[in-house]
Design brief:
Helices cover about 30% and strands about 25% of the residues. It has 11 helices and 18 strands. It has helices at about 15-20, 45-55, 90-110, 110-120, 140-155, 165-170, 195-205, 275-280, 325-335, 375-390, 415-440, and strands spanning about 30-40, 60-65, 80, 135, 160-165, 180-185, 190, 210, 220-225, 225-230, 235-245, 260-270, 285-290, 295-300, 305-310, 340-350, 360-365, 365-370. The longest helix has 24 residues, at about 415-440.
Length: about 450
Amino acid sequence: MAHVPELDEPREPGSIWARSADPSLHWRPLVGDASAGTVVVGGGFTGLSAALHLAERGEAVVVLDAAEPGWGASGRNGGQVIPGLKADPQALEACYGPEWGARVVRTVGGAAENLFELVARYQIDCHARQAGWIQPAHCAGAMVAVRGRAQQWRQRGVDARLLDGDEVRGLLGCAPSVYVGGWLDPRGGSIQPLALARGLARVAADMGVAVHGHARATQLRRAAGLWEVATPAGRVRAQRLVLATNGYTDGLWPGLARSIVPVYSQQIATAPLAPALRERILPHGQVASDTRRLMRYYRLDAAGRLLMGGRGPFRERPGMADTAVLYREACRLFPGIEGVALETTWAGRVAMTADHLPHLHVLADNAYAALGYNGRGVAMAVTMGRLLADLVTGASVHTLDYPTTPPRPLPLHALRRPAIAALTAWYRLLDYRDERRVRA
């Protein structure tokens, strides 16, 4: 069993991103009354993208965040820009039918490109790098699925590259007999997520958006044809409402929180690797997330730290005892990592949906929401922000590039934690079985 090095107490929120991002601006709380064309609740990727795209179209926007822009999972994720969804193109086309299927595939497939284009257009300093995303296959059955996935995207114009076991090992720098193959999607890449969130907030503010931190939305009502959102010290009246709270959705809109299941994704960050390790592990700058049921995802940051992520405990701030599983996995995957010091660990909420697809909602007259990215939120949240802006500015739901659905609260939602715990234990056993067969 690998020894876990001592870990300093992390600063809130504890992520390596909080240590390396440019300092946040002072986002003042809302005090008193304000008015706008649109009020956006939530200052993560979805809400900030919606605000920015609305500002581009001349809309007056107020953004309210309970803490500050990027405080939640938008600023604590792995920074992996992954195109598409977990469902393959053919599955999406079968799900949405002939009218919507091709449009959905085009939208989700272009999400990564949209993000990188937005970063370049506004010159957001967030270490953006479009070096590609690797999905290594952990067993023969997964390799069959990966082969079909790569072929489907190639049929739709993507220069996807199928990888055998030796090629995966060369690109990842991992141990032999860990992965049997995989594929490389050149559309993917990486960003510094908190820097991206803060950059989006700065750009939006420069365009006239009123961005308020420490302004939790505590009450929502419809009055005189306007949406009225109350905070502890103020109130916003607006013609249109956007809810963009994703994994941190609460009871502000009845039933919306029960349409998702929030789970925590935890990450660890090592100290910067020695040059020899840095040259061997992910030497070409790709990011990777594998095909395990309990997925592992990893990358190097700009300083050469190894970041490893996976399913975490149900709390906002994981501690030292919670790093052991991820650290052992890092040592198993990458020989030479054992003994490298850990700098920090952190976690953020991922919003899961029953169908594993993001949801775009028209909640009521001039009220909209988007949430449920199922681990693909970096690229998709930015794209959903643009789609929300389309809805706000009058786009028809019939001509939109993604379908809208009504919120559907999950049955037995109150039992989600024990159900997730049981499913996690079962998935861990299945992954262990698959990996034993590969090593045999």
